[in-house]
Structure formats: structure tokens, C-alpha cells
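Subject: sequence -> C-alpha cells, single chain

Hey, anyone have a minute? Need the predicted structure for the following. Not urgent.
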Amino acid sequence: MEKDKNYKNLFIMLLALMLMAFAACSALVVYVDPFFHYHTPLKGFPYVVDNQLSQNPGMAKNMEYEGCIIGSSMTVNFDTDDFKELLDVNTVKLSYSGAYPRDDYNILSIVFDKDTYARRKNDVKAVFFAMDIPTMTADINATKYPLPEYLYDSDPINDVKYLLNKDVILQYIMRPLIQGQGSDLSEIYKSWWTPDYYNIQWVMHNYDEPSYVEEETSFDTLLPQTKENLDVNILPFVKDNPDTEFYFFFPPYSILYWHNVMQENTFEATFKQYQYVADALLEYDNVHLFYFQTMPETLDLNNYADYTHYKPDINRFMVECFKSGEYEITSSEDMAKELTKMRSMIDDFDFDELFSTEW
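Reply:
Had a minute. Here:
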């Protein structure tokens, strides 16, 4: 009996120690909160911000900001200091590489949630939104990657997956604490390409040309799904927040993007899609729309690291345009003119020479 009692006491002691260890780990995660799930960053802690899926919801919920950057990898090279300098808007970057419209919806649902608003000192003055036309035909519920739902829902029980997460403790608390080096929050998610990668040789060497599709896509085939994504995932935020200015922009993909469109035989359908989206957005007084694909820089592949991703200098220029109004579209007629100009640029570009050169 005495032996059984000793085993029982030992078991209770081990259980208590385990519970104390769990409590200590949880307290550490809550205190530092590397995913900003509970509070704003601690002053002086070297936070590493490199996980869009896990860290964006906390930043959207708990950071203090007046503007947010929404969209795909077309937005990762924005420097939020530029938005403060040029537009006087304290901005947080909430990019998702390869974002589908549902990804944008998920993060904007947190940005404009009433509880999120209550935590912040300022309302959201502006949303800077990359409108990637190729993703507008995605399923309205599809996300690019599976989400860690416990960081997006409001169920505190699910938080155990965050509080007792080995990677969170080791990689996002202990490692930066030991190394003493964190992320520059103004440049988070910045692409890994150094200036040397932005050149035509690199682009063409890595370019994977799509196979030619014989049958042309009907000009209105892309519109039903595009309309559904607009109606479900994007426009509700514009409608419900009339005091917020939405800066939508069509990113300046290179001219090589249009070669892909021609290879896929969706040329007329894609032009129709651009016009349709522009017309839908321009119905709202709080929308500013920019079409950057007619920039002369899009003709020079030395400005790109692949057929769509452009130099950070171009990101800075786009912020300047948000202030100056250059490349802004204010009417359906404006958009039609820009698309006509885009057609001329495509017609005049010598694709034969590009593809006949040994890169």
C-alpha cells in the first residue's frame, strides 16, 4: 500500500510539473505574443515577421494603423514608410503571396471587424488593394493555402495550438531573443530577390512558356466567376465602409504576361474582364482605381525578376501615383482608352525577337 501511495504521489508531482511547464510556456507566448494574437508588439523585442498566414490576422487585429496593404506578392515590396512619408497614412502590410479573393476577404473581415475597431485608436482611412485579374476566376471559397483557423476564429479554446506550439516558442521567441535581430516592420515579407535578379537574362532563363491553346475562350466566359468574387469577397467591404478610401490597382505585370494570355487564347476574354472589373469598382465614390500596365517600364524585362514581379522602385512609384493621381482611372471611358493603349503596346512589341534570342 505504501508503495502504491508513493507511485501515486510521484504521478501527481509529475503531472503538476507538466502543468506548470505548460502554464509557463503559455504565459511566455501570451507575454511576447510573436503572432500579435493578443496585443501589440512589446517595445524592444526583436520580432521576426515572416509568416503571412499566421501573423497577418494578429497584425490586422491588434496593430495600430490607419491604412492597410491587401493583396498578393505584387504588394510584398511596398515599404510602409513610403505611405507615411507620401500619404501621411500609418500603414500595415497584410500581403498573402498568391492571394485569391477569399484570402483578401478573410483578412479584411478582421480589419473591419467591430471588435478590431474597438482595439485601435484610429479608424481605417485607406485600403491599398492589388487587383490581380488572373485570380478573379478562382472559386469564391478557395484560399491559396490552408489557414491556421485557430488564429482566425474567436474560439479561445483553439488557442492551445498557439500557446503550446514548439515552433512558436523556439523559432519566434527564443531564436530572435538569442540572435537579437528582428524584422523591419516597414519591409516585412519583402521578396528574396536582390537587385542582381532583376534582369532580362534571369527572366527569360526561368520563363516557362505555356502551351498554346487552340480554342479561343469566349469573350464573356470569365465574367460570371469574376462577378461572383467581386460581389462576395470584395465589394461588400467597399459598400459597408463608405468613409474608407479604397485604392485598387492593376499591378504592372511585364509585357510577357500578355504573351501568356495569348498562348492561353484568352486575349479578348481578359480585356473584357479588365473592363468589367473597372466598371464595377468605379460605381463607388470611395474607390480610386489605377491601371499601371501601360507604364513604359513594363516593356523592359530588366525591371523584373520574372514575368510579373517588378523592382521595389516601382512599388515606390505607385505610392507616388496614389498621391499624384498619375495612371488613375476615373471613368469607364478612361479604362477603355488605357486598354486600347495596352493593345497597341502588345501589337508593337517584338515577341519574335525576344524568343529568338539565346538567353
